[in-house]
Backbone:
């Protein structure tokens, strides 16, 4: 395949572009040139070529013709001047990129990319411009270091992936099937296998962290339809472990293909997977994979922006669309064959604006089958409005402080934590609640750091606040990250405070430690702000139990719950029933079929029957283990 593409490229490009090498780089074709100016100056040449070959083409300069690194750095600083506020300049020699991190990336890009073009033509390095993150992130540093250290390996990985994607299509039988491996008629371990005649793609690969039995924890890879050897690609909708937690396992068992995710998803899932191993290890559980497998997963990840159309197999094209759920969350849209069929996976969507994100996208170029979540899919699952929720939160916090108590809010590190911090910081700034310390515990600060490192994925209003008004809510002086167990004790014994801690369902993590220390005092308050999975401590407390037994160092300890217990559901990153109905009514184009997933059994069936009654389109809610034929 590459030989054919190479011949075409040599034929199409002008002789003076001096092509030295052509290589697959994942879904893209990299063309190395000794005279890239010709191709950079006249953009139409490459655009025409890409259109003709129906491939994404990227031009790279041959290593011999690039300006030496020290001179390149000097020249970039000269060209950009002080205005750009460059913080670091790094080089990726294998692909010929100069990575420029700056506080004012716009200056480095220049008017309609003018500055970028000047840098390319004067240095023959291709600039990649990034905004210096407002909060330093350990994970982002680690990921970047991994790519630098294993740059050669990464290039080999991308070449193998590219060969597989661009192989000729042999089986054109046009049947399309989806096998439910996890997260069907349940919440947790989301995974669906999409099969065409030619290829097999996995959409999500999650772990049900709340489950007690191994049989219900991982996707059903034991089913005959699943064969790791035949897998072409893995698509990850968002970073939550119930969608991404099992990805490294694939590498432990020999998967060599790509993981497709947005940039925030890549960073956040790496953070959550590392933490998952850490927690499981401490609890003495058998680990399904090791740290090395997480590293492999990072090295095999290809990041995509919203709206970027990419070949992921010979007959499947992937596009991510904003899902409004957590930063970087996406609705993966798969286009199969040349206009043969289209499906979208709206799993974990918020069809309303939140403090952090814009609402989920409901318009697609084409759509035959829509998969949609139903976490809040029962007719009674109507959540109060955001203003009502904010008022309720304000009142609980206010009353608790008056009594001299403390407020504990258990949260998932990614998503709800940031949403709640933005709300609390806003209330303090507006004087609605007194200025008291907000302690975050668990990986919340790191998650906030990753969130603000990718501002292009945040809502327009929050982006404006952070970058134009210089008000980053995550950097507010009231917010303090807890760094040690001693500090935790001081907080528990100290003055009124708000504690925002992981995990969100009180199934492990610092939130449980705070809960045990605070639950027996009626002056304190516990506020649930997210969905509590079946069987978790959180759901038991939410249902009203007052006595709880816990095993500590081999002994059973009894806790009497006296603290106020409240649930504020409206801050969820999921759509409530009304928003789900709106989504079905508004989605364009109208799909022929709706498959309801990601909800307890009663919710998937109820919502599916509503869909059928309202739209008169086929609707179904299959359980795990079933295979449905879409075409
Ligand atoms: Zn989620």
Residues:
């Amino acid at each position: 395949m590459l030989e054919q593409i190479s011949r075409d490229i040599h034929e199409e490009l002008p002789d003076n572009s001096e092509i030295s090498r052509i290589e697959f780089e994942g879904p893209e074709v990299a063309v190395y040139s000794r005279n890239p100016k010709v191709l950079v100056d006249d953009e139409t040449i490459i655009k025409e070529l890409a259109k003709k070959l129906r491939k994404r083409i990227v031009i790279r300069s041959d290593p011999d013709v690039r300006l030496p690194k020290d001179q390149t750095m000097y020249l970039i600083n000269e060209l950009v001047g002080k205005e750009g506020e460059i913080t670091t300049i790094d080089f990726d020699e294998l692909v010929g990129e100069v990575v420029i991190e700056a506080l004012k990336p716009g200056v480095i890009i220049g008017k309609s990319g003018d500055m970028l073009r000047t840098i390319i033509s004067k240095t023959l390095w291709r600039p990649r411009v990034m905004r210096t993150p407002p909060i330093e992130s350990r994970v982002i540093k680690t990921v970047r270091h991994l790519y630098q250290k294993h740059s050669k390996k990464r290039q080999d990985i991308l070449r193998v992936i590219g060969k597989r994607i661009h192989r000729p299509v042999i089986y054109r039988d046009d049947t399309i099937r989806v096998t439910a491996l996890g997260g069907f008629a349940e919440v947790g371990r989301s995974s669906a296998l999409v099969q065409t005649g030619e290829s097999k793609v996995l959409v999500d690969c999650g772990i049900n962290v709340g489950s007690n039995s191994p049989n219900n924890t991982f996707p059903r890879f034991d089913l005959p339809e699943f064969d790791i050897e035949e897998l072409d690609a893995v698509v990850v909708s968002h970073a939550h472990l119930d969608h991404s937690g099992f990805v490294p396992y694939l590498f432990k068992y020999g998967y060599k293909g790509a993981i497709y995710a947005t940039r925030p998803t890549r960073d956040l899932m790496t953070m959550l997977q590392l933490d998952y191993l850490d927690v499981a290890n401490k609890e003495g559980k058998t680990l399904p994979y090791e740290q090395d497998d997480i590293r492999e997963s990072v090295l095999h990840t290809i990041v995509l922006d919203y709206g970027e159309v990419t070949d992921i197999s010979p007959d499947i094209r992937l596009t991510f669309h904003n899902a409004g759920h957590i930063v970087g969350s996406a609705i993966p849209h798969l286009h199969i064959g040349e206009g043969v069929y289209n499906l979208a996976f709206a799993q974990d969507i918020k069809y309303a604006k939140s403090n952090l994100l814009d609402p989920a996208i409901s318009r697609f170029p084409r759509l035959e089958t829509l998969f949609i979540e139903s976490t809040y899919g029962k007719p009674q699952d109507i959540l109060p409005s955001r203003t009502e929720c904010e008022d309720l939160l304000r009142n609980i916090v206010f009353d608790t402080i008056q009594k001299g108590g403390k407020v504990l809010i258990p949260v998932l590190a990614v998503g709800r934590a940031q949403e709640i911090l933005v709300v609390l910081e806003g209330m303090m700034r507006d004087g609605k609640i007194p200025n008291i310390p907000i302690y975050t515990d668990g990986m919340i600060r790191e998650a906030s750091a990753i969130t603000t490192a990718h501002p292009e994925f945040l809502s327009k209003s929050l982006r404006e606040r952070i970058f134009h008004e210089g008000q980053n809510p995550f950097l507010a002086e009231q917010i303090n990250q807890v760094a040690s167990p001693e500090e935790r004790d001081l907080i528990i014994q100290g003055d009124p405070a708000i504690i925002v801690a992981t995990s969100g369902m009180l199934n492990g993590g610092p939130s449980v430690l705070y809960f045990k220390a605070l639950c027996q005092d009626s002056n304190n308050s516990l506020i649930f702000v997210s969905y509590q999975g079946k069987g978790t401590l959180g759901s038991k407390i939410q249902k009203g139990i007052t006595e709880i037994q816990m095993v500590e160092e081999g002994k059973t300890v009894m806790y009497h719950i006296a603290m106020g217990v409240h649930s504020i559901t409206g801050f969820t990153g999921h759509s409530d029933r009304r928003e789900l109905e709106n989504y079905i009514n508004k989605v364009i184009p109208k799909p022929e079929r709706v498959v309801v997933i990601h909800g307890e059994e009663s919710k998937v069936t109820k919502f599916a029957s509503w869909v059928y009654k309202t739209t008169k389109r086929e609707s179904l809610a299959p359980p795990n283990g079933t295979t449905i034929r879409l075409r």
Remarks:
- The first strand starts at residue 19 and ends at 25.
- The radius of gyration is 25 Å.
